[in-house]
Batch of 4 targets.
Target 1
Amino acid sequence: MADFYPPVSFYYLVSFNGISGKVIDTRFQSVSGLTVEMKTEPYKEGGENRFEHILPNRPKYSDLTLKRGFAKDSDLIQWFSDSFVSMQVVPVTLDIMLLNEESEPLVSWNVVHAWPKKWSLSELDAEKSGIAIETLELHYRTFSINT
């Protein structure tokens, strides 16, 4: 059996299907929120008072958060703007791909029915020499893992 080495987490790509083909809309400083949790429901059985059963209910997915340097000419930001200004919320599917050293996908996550929930810009501070970071928050329905 070949030696297994866990992949690095810093080489990845995000692809928004149907929004943009620009490189600026595929590169992010960080991606977080690929999380699913099984919600539960307590069930008290009649006649058995020592404990209660905990039953699985349905999965709950957290919001997806993408961070990058502020991008002026971005189709992705236009999509966000259309959603917030004119209430034209158009859900999309996106792919997050973890890449190997040859820029080939090792694993990908297909995020379904994602729509803009929040946009924010980092603090503008004349006393610091930092990069302006924009944070894009998306709500999504579900995701699947493709290996």
Target 2
Amino acid sequence: MSATEQSIGIARTAAHAAADKIAQDIVALDVSDRLAITDVFVIASAPSERQVNAIVDGIEEELSKQGLKPVRREGRSEGRWVLLDYAEVIVHVQHEEDRVFYALDRLWKDCPSVDLQLEGELQTSPQVLAADDAAE
């Protein structure tokens, strides 16, 4: 089983909203074969707690225009790792230090990536690249 078109659409909307708020290293992984509770993880990072929260606000605003509200939100007060659970899609917005430390990308590397259609909007942080190179 793979992610539904609806899930991919939600992930793309979230990714574009994150890119509009200058999120770094935005990726989406199709976790539907590994998890029964969701289809797609969207992962993005930022260099400060303030920017993490701005990205989260942007994502929630864009998805609310489609009538979507998260069924659960965690980590907002700390601004280090915010999880937005939209059931079919779970969005992780992490401080870049936490992104390197927890390495969700590496934990789920066996899952196929989803084309977010962000041509030219991606910004990869040097820390994530260095961590990926060190892990290989």
Target 3
Amino acid sequence: MPDCIFCKIVSKEIPASIIYENDKVVAFKDINPVAPVHILIVPKQHISSVLEIEESDTDVIHHIFMICKKLAKDLGITENGFRIVNNCGHDGGQTVDHIHFHVLGGRTLTWPPG
């Protein structure tokens, strides 16, 4: 998608604080963190939201969760816990129409979230 900010991060058209990348995903620091650890994990392929996931996307979605686990361990937030968040649609708080997962940790997170 030509105007998608996350597609531009994936293609390196705009800078980001990338902490992990492989052939399927890119993970980078959120520019407006709400926790000491706040990273975003996005698939390199453009999927607009959870509502657009197809059966053929199962592998990349599974891979995202494996990377969530890996990065949480690498960032030292597994012992006390962390949160994985995916916002879907306007009322769900999705501000970029490219599926992405927030990994939040490093402090006690409250519920409900907002």
Target 4
Amino acid sequence: MIIILFKNFMTKIPYIKPTNSEKVMRDSDFIVSKTDSKGKITYCNQIFMEFSGYTEKELLEKPHSIIRHPDMPRAAFRLMWQTLENGDEFFAYVKNLSKDGGFYWVFANVTPNFDQQHNICGYFSVRRKPSAQAIETLIPVYTEMCRIESSISGNKGIDASTEYLVTVLNSLGKSYNELVLSFQ
């Protein structure tokens, strides 16, 4: 078991050893999920269950990080939460971990849901098949970000990883959203 601190609560998630088995989304697939304000899953569609390998019962009330692949840099999720907490939508290419250890790439759009007082009460995410060019471009960036994060502990590692990403973006003359959306 590993313990994950996720949006101010701790949860136990079974350790899954990643494999090199990739599941590729079909062009017509849309993975849909909703979470509460803490990131716990409140809804998941059939395609989500198919690719993650979990049943609805296994997913509901679990943190969305249950499908977080260790090849994904923590800085990417920090950027996501900062963007969402500002009330903005977030786009990203994400490598997810299936229950069987396999993986699948998605192009994700995450948006905050608001209550009548305009407070964030949850999040809605739709994922679709990513472009091959995006994945080829981002794998070396994510790999270096993860290397940085593993060489420097805690928040300092995430900070250094974020600095690396900013350097890459500056060299391309693009913001994060411009880079991500340029691939689709």
